[in-house]
Amino acid sequence: MKKVLILAVAAAIVMLVPSFASAQTANGVLTVTATVQGSIGLVFNSDAAGVALSSGAGTNAATLAFGNVSAFGAVSAGVVRTVAANSFTVSSAVDVQVSKTNSASANYTLKAQLGAADAVNSWTVGGIAVTSAAQSTLTATGTYAANSNFPVAITVPFTTASGTLISNTINYTATAN
Amino acid sequence: MKRQNATRTLVIAALMLSSAALFGQTATGVINGTLINKNGITLVFDSDPAGVALGNSGTSAASVNFGNISAFGPLSGGVTRPSVTVANFTVQTIFDVNVIQGGLASVTYTLTANLAAAAPTGFTYKVDAVTLTTAAQTIQANGTYNTDVAHNLGLVVLTAAPGAGGPAVGSPIAATINFTATAN
User: Taking the CB of residue A149, how many other CB atoms lie within 10 A of it?
Assistant: First the structure.
Protein backbone atom coordinates (compact mmCIF):
# COMPACT_ATOMS: atom_id res chain seq x y z
CA MET A 1 0.00 0.00 0.00
CA LYS A 2 2.84 2.33 0.88
CA LYS A 3 4.61 1.54 -2.39
CA VAL A 4 1.51 2.32 -4.35
CA LEU A 5 1.23 5.67 -2.65
CA ILE A 6 4.87 6.51 -3.41
CA LEU A 7 4.41 5.53 -7.03
CA ALA A 8 1.33 7.68 -7.33
CA VAL A 9 3.13 10.72 -5.91
CA ALA A 10 6.12 10.14 -8.18
CA ALA A 11 3.87 9.89 -11.21
CA ALA A 12 2.11 13.12 -10.29
CA ILE A 13 5.44 14.94 -9.96
CA VAL A 14 6.60 13.64 -13.33
CA MET A 15 3.39 14.84 -14.93
CA LEU A 16 3.61 18.27 -13.36
CA VAL A 17 7.28 18.95 -13.98
CA PRO A 18 7.08 19.48 -17.76
CA SER A 19 4.45 22.18 -17.42
CA PHE A 20 6.73 24.15 -15.14
CA ALA A 21 9.94 23.45 -17.03
CA SER A 22 8.84 24.30 -20.57
CA ALA A 23 9.69 27.94 -21.37
CA GLN A 24 7.09 30.26 -22.80
CA THR A 25 7.80 31.00 -26.46
CA ALA A 26 6.35 33.17 -29.21
CA ASN A 27 7.01 32.89 -32.91
CA GLY A 28 7.07 35.28 -35.84
CA VAL A 29 7.74 34.96 -39.54
CA LEU A 30 9.31 37.71 -41.62
CA THR A 31 9.33 37.36 -45.41
CA VAL A 32 12.15 39.25 -47.06
CA THR A 33 12.09 40.22 -50.73
CA ALA A 34 14.61 42.03 -52.91
CA THR A 35 15.25 42.40 -56.62
CA VAL A 36 18.90 42.53 -57.64
CA GLN A 37 19.80 44.80 -60.51
CA GLY A 38 23.13 44.83 -62.33
CA SER A 39 25.00 48.09 -61.94
CA ILE A 40 28.27 49.81 -62.68
CA GLY A 41 30.08 52.46 -60.70
CA LEU A 42 32.73 55.00 -61.64
CA VAL A 43 35.36 56.56 -59.40
CA PHE A 44 38.33 58.84 -59.95
CA ASN A 45 41.67 57.93 -58.47
CA SER A 46 44.89 59.87 -58.27
CA ASP A 47 47.43 58.62 -60.77
CA ALA A 48 50.92 58.18 -59.42
CA ALA A 49 52.32 60.14 -62.35
CA GLY A 50 49.85 63.00 -62.14
CA VAL A 51 48.63 65.68 -59.78
CA ALA A 52 47.06 64.19 -56.70
CA LEU A 53 43.34 64.82 -56.73
CA SER A 54 42.75 67.54 -54.19
CA SER A 55 39.44 66.07 -53.10
CA GLY A 56 37.14 63.19 -53.87
CA ALA A 57 39.73 60.57 -54.75
CA GLY A 58 38.00 57.21 -54.73
CA THR A 59 34.62 58.78 -55.39
CA ASN A 60 32.72 59.90 -58.45
CA ALA A 61 33.07 63.62 -57.65
CA ALA A 62 36.69 64.66 -57.53
CA THR A 63 38.66 67.86 -57.95
CA LEU A 64 41.84 68.28 -59.98
CA ALA A 65 43.72 71.45 -59.14
CA PHE A 66 46.65 72.29 -61.44
CA GLY A 67 47.71 75.20 -59.28
CA ASN A 68 49.53 78.06 -60.97
CA VAL A 69 50.32 77.34 -64.58
CA SER A 70 52.30 79.31 -67.10
CA ALA A 71 54.10 78.83 -70.37
CA PHE A 72 57.58 79.13 -68.91
CA GLY A 73 57.37 79.34 -65.14
CA ALA A 74 57.43 76.51 -62.64
CA VAL A 75 54.49 74.13 -62.56
CA SER A 76 53.29 71.81 -59.84
CA ALA A 77 54.52 68.26 -59.54
CA GLY A 78 52.58 65.93 -61.78
CA VAL A 79 51.81 68.64 -64.32
CA VAL A 80 53.16 68.05 -67.80
CA ARG A 81 53.56 71.11 -70.00
CA THR A 82 54.04 71.60 -73.70
CA VAL A 83 54.49 74.99 -75.30
CA ALA A 84 53.34 75.91 -78.78
CA ALA A 85 53.70 79.08 -80.82
CA ASN A 86 50.67 80.84 -79.37
CA SER A 87 49.59 78.70 -76.44
CA PHE A 88 50.72 76.23 -73.88
CA THR A 89 49.14 73.01 -72.67
CA VAL A 90 49.19 71.60 -69.18
CA SER A 91 48.04 68.10 -68.46
CA SER A 92 47.83 65.64 -65.61
CA ALA A 93 47.22 61.94 -65.49
CA VAL A 94 43.88 61.03 -63.90
CA ASP A 95 42.72 57.50 -63.29
CA VAL A 96 39.19 56.40 -63.97
CA GLN A 97 38.01 53.11 -62.56
CA VAL A 98 34.71 51.55 -63.55
CA SER A 99 33.39 48.59 -61.61
CA LYS A 100 30.56 46.28 -62.55
CA THR A 101 28.33 44.16 -60.33
CA ASN A 102 25.88 41.40 -61.12
CA SER A 103 26.46 41.87 -64.80
CA ALA A 104 27.92 39.82 -67.62
CA SER A 105 29.05 42.94 -69.47
CA ALA A 106 32.53 42.51 -70.95
CA ASN A 107 33.54 46.16 -71.12
CA TYR A 108 32.24 49.69 -71.04
CA THR A 109 32.09 52.84 -73.10
CA LEU A 110 33.35 56.01 -71.45
CA LYS A 111 32.24 59.45 -72.56
CA ALA A 112 32.99 62.93 -71.29
CA GLN A 113 31.53 66.40 -71.72
CA LEU A 114 32.40 69.83 -70.38
CA GLY A 115 29.91 71.21 -67.92
CA ALA A 116 30.11 74.70 -69.36
CA ALA A 117 31.26 76.13 -72.64
CA ASP A 118 34.81 77.46 -72.79
CA ALA A 119 35.41 79.72 -75.78
CA VAL A 120 38.97 80.51 -74.82
CA ASN A 121 40.68 77.35 -73.71
CA SER A 122 40.69 73.90 -75.23
CA TRP A 123 40.13 70.77 -73.17
CA THR A 124 41.02 67.18 -73.87
CA VAL A 125 40.55 64.01 -71.88
CA GLY A 126 42.61 61.04 -72.83
CA GLY A 127 43.70 62.91 -75.95
CA ILE A 128 40.12 63.40 -77.10
CA ALA A 129 38.75 66.92 -77.47
CA VAL A 130 35.99 67.61 -75.01
CA THR A 131 33.42 70.38 -75.30
CA SER A 132 30.09 71.26 -73.74
CA ALA A 133 28.26 70.69 -76.99
CA ALA A 134 28.12 66.92 -76.89
CA GLN A 135 29.63 63.90 -75.23
CA SER A 136 32.95 62.73 -76.59
CA THR A 137 33.78 59.05 -76.53
CA LEU A 138 37.01 58.40 -74.68
CA THR A 139 36.95 54.64 -75.11
CA ALA A 140 34.48 52.07 -76.36
CA THR A 141 36.21 49.12 -74.75
CA GLY A 142 37.04 50.13 -71.22
CA THR A 143 38.32 47.46 -68.86
CA TYR A 144 36.37 46.98 -65.66
CA ALA A 145 37.89 47.10 -62.21
CA ALA A 146 41.16 48.65 -63.38
CA ASN A 147 42.58 52.13 -63.14
CA SER A 148 42.68 53.58 -66.62
CA ASN A 149 44.62 56.78 -67.14
CA PHE A 150 42.75 59.44 -69.07
CA PRO A 151 44.93 62.55 -68.83
CA VAL A 152 43.11 65.84 -68.51
CA ALA A 153 44.71 68.62 -70.55
CA ILE A 154 43.98 72.32 -70.97
CA THR A 155 45.41 74.45 -73.74
CA VAL A 156 45.72 78.09 -72.72
CA PRO A 157 46.37 80.90 -75.25
CA PHE A 158 49.22 83.27 -74.55
CA THR A 159 46.66 86.05 -74.65
CA THR A 160 45.12 84.94 -71.37
CA ALA A 161 45.72 87.52 -68.69
CA SER A 162 47.94 86.55 -65.81
CA GLY A 163 45.98 85.55 -62.72
CA THR A 164 43.00 84.30 -64.70
CA LEU A 165 41.25 81.41 -62.96
CA ILE A 166 40.31 78.63 -65.32
CA SER A 167 37.67 76.31 -63.94
CA ASN A 168 35.19 73.91 -65.40
CA THR A 169 33.59 70.57 -64.72
CA ILE A 170 33.92 67.47 -66.83
CA ASN A 171 31.05 65.03 -66.71
CA TYR A 172 31.95 61.39 -67.33
CA THR A 173 29.50 58.69 -68.26
CA ALA A 174 30.35 55.01 -68.36
CA THR A 175 27.91 52.68 -70.07
CA ALA A 176 28.08 48.90 -69.87
CA ASN A 177 28.46 47.26 -73.24
CA MET B 1 -71.81 30.27 18.08
CA LYS B 2 -68.52 28.73 18.82
CA ARG B 3 -68.59 27.07 15.43
CA GLN B 4 -69.26 30.39 13.70
CA ASN B 5 -66.36 32.02 15.49
CA ALA B 6 -64.07 29.20 14.57
CA THR B 7 -65.15 29.43 10.94
CA ARG B 8 -64.53 33.20 10.88
CA THR B 9 -61.10 32.78 12.36
CA LEU B 10 -60.19 30.20 9.76
CA VAL B 11 -61.34 32.44 6.91
CA ILE B 12 -59.32 35.38 8.21
CA ALA B 13 -56.25 33.22 8.65
CA ALA B 14 -56.66 31.87 5.14
CA LEU B 15 -56.91 35.40 3.72
CA MET B 16 -53.81 36.48 5.58
CA LEU B 17 -51.89 33.53 4.33
CA SER B 18 -52.99 34.02 0.75
CA SER B 19 -51.92 37.66 0.73
CA ALA B 20 -48.57 36.70 2.14
CA ALA B 21 -48.25 34.19 -0.65
CA LEU B 22 -49.17 36.69 -3.38
CA PHE B 23 -46.80 39.53 -2.46
CA GLY B 24 -42.95 39.65 -2.05
CA GLN B 25 -42.09 36.49 -3.90
CA THR B 26 -38.34 36.39 -4.44
CA ALA B 27 -35.81 33.99 -5.81
CA THR B 28 -32.11 34.16 -5.40
CA GLY B 29 -29.20 32.38 -6.98
CA VAL B 30 -25.43 32.49 -6.92
CA ILE B 31 -23.15 31.81 -9.84
CA ASN B 32 -19.52 31.22 -9.03
CA GLY B 33 -17.57 32.52 -12.05
CA THR B 34 -14.05 31.17 -12.41
CA LEU B 35 -11.36 32.77 -14.59
CA ILE B 36 -7.94 31.33 -15.01
CA ASN B 37 -5.42 33.94 -16.08
CA LYS B 38 -3.10 32.08 -18.48
CA ASN B 39 0.33 33.62 -18.86
CA GLY B 40 2.03 33.88 -22.20
CA ILE B 41 4.08 35.92 -24.67
CA THR B 42 3.55 36.97 -28.25
CA LEU B 43 5.80 38.50 -30.89
CA VAL B 44 4.90 41.10 -33.49
CA PHE B 45 6.91 42.96 -36.11
CA ASP B 46 6.54 46.72 -36.37
CA SER B 47 7.78 49.12 -39.01
CA ASP B 48 10.65 51.25 -37.80
CA PRO B 49 10.52 54.93 -38.77
CA ALA B 50 14.03 54.66 -40.18
CA GLY B 51 13.40 51.52 -42.17
CA VAL B 52 11.27 50.11 -44.94
CA ALA B 53 7.55 50.04 -44.12
CA LEU B 54 6.60 46.44 -43.37
CA GLY B 55 3.72 44.60 -44.93
CA ASN B 56 1.32 43.44 -42.20
CA SER B 57 3.11 45.54 -39.62
CA GLY B 58 1.86 44.83 -36.11
CA THR B 59 1.45 41.11 -36.72
CA SER B 60 3.61 38.05 -36.27
CA ALA B 61 3.68 37.40 -40.02
CA ALA B 62 5.11 40.48 -41.71
CA SER B 63 7.04 41.13 -44.89
CA VAL B 64 9.78 43.52 -45.92
CA ASN B 65 10.48 44.40 -49.52
CA PHE B 66 13.83 46.01 -50.28
CA GLY B 67 12.74 46.77 -53.84
CA ASN B 68 15.48 47.08 -56.42
CA ILE B 69 18.94 46.72 -54.94
CA SER B 70 22.33 47.13 -56.55
CA ALA B 71 25.87 48.05 -55.66
CA PHE B 72 25.75 51.47 -57.29
CA GLY B 73 22.19 52.28 -58.30
CA PRO B 74 19.48 54.09 -56.36
CA LEU B 75 17.79 52.37 -53.43
CA SER B 76 14.30 52.54 -51.99
CA GLY B 77 13.55 54.75 -49.02
CA GLY B 78 14.57 53.19 -45.74
CA VAL B 79 17.24 51.07 -47.41
CA THR B 80 20.88 51.89 -46.85
CA ARG B 81 24.03 50.48 -48.41
CA PRO B 82 26.66 50.35 -45.68
CA SER B 83 29.33 48.68 -47.77
CA VAL B 84 30.42 47.91 -51.30
CA THR B 85 33.44 45.74 -51.91
CA VAL B 86 34.80 44.00 -54.97
CA ALA B 87 33.20 40.76 -53.82
CA ASN B 88 29.86 41.90 -52.45
CA PHE B 89 27.63 44.72 -51.35
CA THR B 90 25.36 45.03 -48.37
CA VAL B 91 21.94 46.63 -48.20
CA GLN B 92 20.23 47.10 -44.91
CA THR B 93 17.00 48.21 -43.30
CA ILE B 94 15.67 48.49 -39.78
CA PHE B 95 12.63 46.73 -38.36
CA ASP B 96 11.22 46.47 -34.88
CA VAL B 97 10.37 43.41 -32.82
CA ASN B 98 7.90 43.79 -30.00
CA VAL B 99 7.54 40.88 -27.61
CA ILE B 100 4.56 41.26 -25.32
CA GLN B 101 4.16 39.19 -22.18
CA GLY B 102 1.45 38.84 -19.61
CA GLY B 103 1.34 37.00 -16.34
CA LEU B 104 4.95 35.98 -16.38
CA ALA B 105 7.61 36.68 -13.83
CA SER B 106 10.10 36.78 -16.69
CA VAL B 107 11.97 40.05 -17.03
CA THR B 108 13.60 39.53 -20.41
CA TYR B 109 13.43 37.26 -23.40
CA THR B 110 15.83 35.59 -25.77
CA LEU B 111 15.29 36.17 -29.47
CA THR B 112 16.49 33.63 -31.99
CA ALA B 113 16.17 33.54 -35.75
CA ASN B 114 16.79 31.15 -38.59
CA LEU B 115 16.20 30.93 -42.29
CA ALA B 116 13.28 28.73 -43.23
CA ALA B 117 15.32 27.37 -46.14
CA ALA B 118 18.82 27.70 -47.49
CA ALA B 119 19.60 31.20 -48.71
CA PRO B 120 19.17 31.86 -52.44
CA THR B 121 22.33 31.82 -54.56
CA GLY B 122 24.46 34.88 -54.01
CA PHE B 123 22.61 35.99 -50.91
CA THR B 124 23.50 36.05 -47.24
CA TYR B 125 21.01 37.29 -44.65
CA LYS B 126 21.96 38.95 -41.42
CA VAL B 127 20.03 40.17 -38.41
CA ASP B 128 22.21 42.60 -36.52
CA ALA B 129 25.66 40.97 -36.52
CA VAL B 130 24.39 37.43 -36.88
CA THR B 131 24.64 35.67 -40.22
CA LEU B 132 21.54 33.52 -40.52
CA THR B 133 21.46 29.86 -41.36
CA THR B 134 18.71 27.31 -41.22
CA ALA B 135 19.68 26.63 -37.59
CA ALA B 136 18.33 28.96 -34.94
CA GLN B 137 20.85 31.44 -33.60
CA THR B 138 20.57 33.92 -30.80
CA ILE B 139 19.99 37.48 -31.92
CA GLN B 140 19.43 38.96 -28.48
CA ALA B 141 19.63 37.30 -25.08
CA ASN B 142 18.07 40.03 -22.96
CA GLY B 143 15.23 41.59 -24.93
CA THR B 144 12.94 44.02 -23.18
CA TYR B 145 9.23 43.20 -23.18
CA ASN B 146 6.44 45.41 -24.40
CA THR B 147 8.54 47.80 -26.42
CA ASP B 148 9.77 48.04 -29.99
CA VAL B 149 13.32 46.80 -30.19
CA ALA B 150 15.06 47.84 -33.40
CA HIS B 151 17.06 45.29 -35.36
CA ASN B 152 19.07 45.63 -38.54
CA LEU B 153 18.21 43.31 -41.38
CA GLY B 154 21.10 43.04 -43.81
CA LEU B 155 21.37 41.40 -47.21
CA VAL B 156 24.89 40.66 -48.38
CA VAL B 157 24.82 40.18 -52.13
CA LEU B 158 27.66 38.81 -54.21
CA THR B 159 28.71 41.07 -57.08
CA ALA B 160 29.41 38.19 -59.44
CA ALA B 161 27.30 37.88 -62.53
CA PRO B 162 24.38 35.45 -62.66
CA GLY B 163 25.70 32.00 -63.45
CA ALA B 164 29.10 32.88 -62.06
CA GLY B 165 28.15 32.63 -58.41
CA GLY B 166 26.10 35.78 -58.28
CA PRO B 167 22.38 36.04 -57.70
CA ALA B 168 19.69 36.11 -60.33
CA VAL B 169 18.92 39.64 -61.45
CA GLY B 170 15.77 41.41 -62.47
CA SER B 171 13.27 39.33 -60.52
CA PRO B 172 12.26 39.33 -56.86
CA ILE B 173 14.11 36.91 -54.62
CA ALA B 174 12.42 35.98 -51.38
CA ALA B 175 13.42 34.29 -48.17
CA THR B 176 11.60 33.57 -44.94
CA ILE B 177 13.09 34.21 -41.54
CA ASN B 178 11.60 32.53 -38.51
CA PHE B 179 11.89 34.32 -35.20
CA THR B 180 11.31 32.81 -31.78
CA ALA B 181 11.15 34.70 -28.51
CA THR B 182 11.64 32.63 -25.37
CA ALA B 183 10.96 33.95 -21.91
CA ASN B 184 14.05 33.97 -19.72
Answer: 15
